[in-house]
Design goal:
The chain is mainly α. 45% of the residues lie in helices and 3% in strands.
């Protein structure tokens, strides 16, 4: 699971799309984040920036979005040249967090609820 979490983070470093780990990969990301100094150094080495861990708001996700996010993430990991372990990605579903805020890490904050188009 550690290698899949590192592949996920390496892909977050180079892919601009919203990505999300699976429920089995996410705990490894959580464990790494708790080692703040090492995590920060890793992020700066592979991404040139800190890769945020952001809980997702299920109410804002559209129907089918979690499955689409997992497929998008797995395809991005493969495109980045990493090996994917399908059992760790598709057996458990999407985790409830991403590296994205409002679409991705560098996006502005989401609009106020009254302006939302979802």
């Amino acid at each position: 699971m550690v290698d899949q979490a590192l592949a996920f983070l390496g892909t977050c470093a180079v892919d601009g799309k919203p990505l999300s780990p699976s429920r089995l990969v996410d705990p490894e990301w959580h464990a790494f984040v708790l080692h703040t100094r090492e995590y920060r150094e890793f992020c700066h080495r592979v991404a040139g920036r800190f890769i945020d861990h952001v809980p997702t708001d299920e109410a804002r996700a559209g129907a089918g979005e979690p499955a689409m996010a997992l497929h998008r993430t797995v395809e991005a990991i493969r495109a980045a040249g990493y090996v994917v372990d399908p059992e760790l990605w598709f057996a458990s579903g999407q985790a409830k967090c991403t590296q994205c805020h409002n679409g991705c890490a560098d996006d502005p904050p989401p609009p106020p609820a009254a302006e939302s188009t979802l």
